[in-house]
Amino acid sequence: MSSIPMPAVARPDYQKFDVAVKPSAIDGHGAFAAERIPARRKIGEIRGQSMSVEDARIRATRYERIMIVEVSERRAIDFAKSTDPLRFVNHCCAPNARLCIRQRRVEFHSLREIAPGEEITVDYGHSHHEGKLVCQCGAPTCKGRL
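The structure assignment produced for this chain is given below.
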């Protein structure tokens, strides 16, 4: 498996654990734990371009791969150009992490211990797909659609 090259820089302070980007069996590329992540810990954050929800929803209609999170009723963040590896976190119906919005920041927290090499996943919940996208997570409890 090849990894997407990441710049050789020190881990930012908002990134609490090392995460690698590699091809994913779920979809495209995924974010994988590069070290053991204990249960109930902040894994890190993703940073991106802040915009109005209205602009974000328009932008979402123009791209096949969308990396946008609405952080309030009026603001959204687009992560398409972010260099943060957590932007590659895929959906799973039986996730090992959760996405939290705190003070308009998008954070990821582990639900249980995540082993090195394990893909980090979250339940996307309500999404723009409106149940039209087939879920490929492979979990025994898979809901079938996003």
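Interim note for the steering committee: The mean pLDDT is 88. The radius of gyration is 15 Å.
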